[in-house]
Prior knowledge:
The protein is α+β, with helices and mostly antiparallel strands. It is built from 4 helices and 4 strands; from the N terminus they run ααββααββ. The protein has helices spanning about 5-25, 25-30, 50-55, 60-70, and strands at about 35, 40-45, 75-80, 80-90. Strands 1-2-3-4 form a 4-stranded mixed sheet. Helix 1 packs antiparallel against helix 4. The radius of gyration is 14 Å and the shape is elongated. It starts with 6 loop residues before the first helix and ends in a 6-residue tail after the last strand. The mean pLDDT is about 90.
Amino acid sequence: MPLELTTNDLLVLEQYRLQRFRSFFFSTLMSCPIGLDETNTLIIHCLEPELVDQLLRQIDQLRWYARVVLGVHSLAIKFVQEEIYRTATDIAFS
């Protein structure tokens, strides 16, 4: 008998994956809302410019964990609604 996941099951699993990702960068991401969009991109919304700077210093690690933990194809960092940085996550493996 095949296992069938409901929409609610998939949403719960996505939240667990996001929590797991956040745990690797907790001090930086604890005040940043994060989410996945329909294009399989991790969106990180930063509320302070210092957080953007910290994330950019950790970009190689962010790409690697985003690819491995979340399975996303790209990562975007936003500060106040403006996209500051976007990168593919697969380049972390090159």
